[in-house]
Amino acid sequence: MVEDASLDDFLDAGDESEDERDGGSSAEDETAEPGREPAGSEASADGVKPAGSEASTETVEPAVTTYAWSPEGAACAECGEVVERRWTQDGILVCGACKRW
Q1: How confident is the model at residue 66 (pLDDT cuts 50, 70, 90)?
Q2: pLDDT tens digit sequence for 3-34
Q3: Alpha helices, DSSP H only, in 1-101?
Q4: How far apart are the C-alpha atoms of 60 and 57, rounded to whole Å?
Q5: Are 43 and 67 in the same domain?
Q6: Which of 23, 26, 70, 101 could share a disulfide with 74, CB 3.0–4.6 Å?
Q7: Which of helix, strand or coil describes residue 70?
Q8: Distance set, CA 74 to CA 11, 15, 90 (Å)
Q9: Same domain for 42 and 65?
Q10: pTM over 0.90
Q11: In angstroms, rounded to a whole number, what is the distance separating the alpha carbons of residues 86 and 73?
């Protein structure tokens, strides 16, 4: 059985060495000076991440439905005919006959 994963689980996946993926440490980590962040660390000495080091925080418009399928049928918002397939038009769901293509 395959477990569900978040897209965040795949961010920066290509930046890890094979040793890091296996739980080991890279050569850079082993040669870091005591008290100093390992090479490639995202935090600077003052604890602030450099600009561009994380994913964009801009909001994304959510997807909008353009089509609906109802196996039992549903009424068209324009003509009232009960149909299985309806499309969004001016914020309402209409049948294929009422849809302006």
Answers
A1: very high
A2: 787 888 777 755 555 555 555 554 544 555 55
A3: 18-21, 27-30
A4: 9
A5: no
A6: 70
A7: strand
A8: 42, 50, 18
A9: no
A10: no
A11: 9
Domain that holds residue 35: 13-50
Structure tokens at 5: 């994963």
Tell me what the mean pLDDT of segment 34-56 comes to. Answer: 57
The residue whose two tokens read 């059985």 is 1
In the chain, the number of structural domains is 2
Determine the pLDDT at residue 86. 97
Question: Can you tell me whether residue 18 is helix, strand or coil?
Answer: helix
Tokens of 69: 């399928």
Does residue 88 contact residue 66 with C-beta atoms inside 8 Å?
yes
Contacts of 70 (CB under 8 A, 6+ apart): 84, 86
Q: Rounded CA gap, 71 and 16, in Å?
A: 47
